[in-house]
Design goal:
It contains four helices and no strands. The protein is mostly helical and 87 residues long. The model has no long low-confidence stretch (mean pLDDT 94).
């Protein structure tokens, strides 16, 4: 698995039509951020910004994970979501 598969998964995630839970969206987002930017490097948003805080926390949980590992998990998660919707 490499960059090409990752880019294909990035494109595929935008094509998903089935319902994707907020938890699944956060997971996919967190692995995408880790794969593309590495460890979370921005300050935590205020607790009043619930959506931004949830995204920050999800990404920050991956701290220390390599970009390659995050890429592999992202690809696997997107494949799982595609199968779930029958694609």
């Amino acid at each position: 698995m490499g960059q090409v598969e990752f880019e294909l998964a990035c494109a595929a995630v935008k094509e998903l039509k089935g319902p994707v839970s907020d938890q699944e969206k956060l997971l996919v987002y967190s692995f995408y951020k880790q794969a593309t930017q590495g460890d979370c490097n921005i300050p935590a948003p205020p607790s009043t910004d619930v959506k931004a805080k949830a995204k920050w926390e999800a990404w920050n949980e991956n701290k220390g994970m390599t970009k390659l590992d995050a890429m592999r998990i992202y690809i696997a998660k997107v494949e799982e979501l595609k199968k779930k919707e029958g694609g």
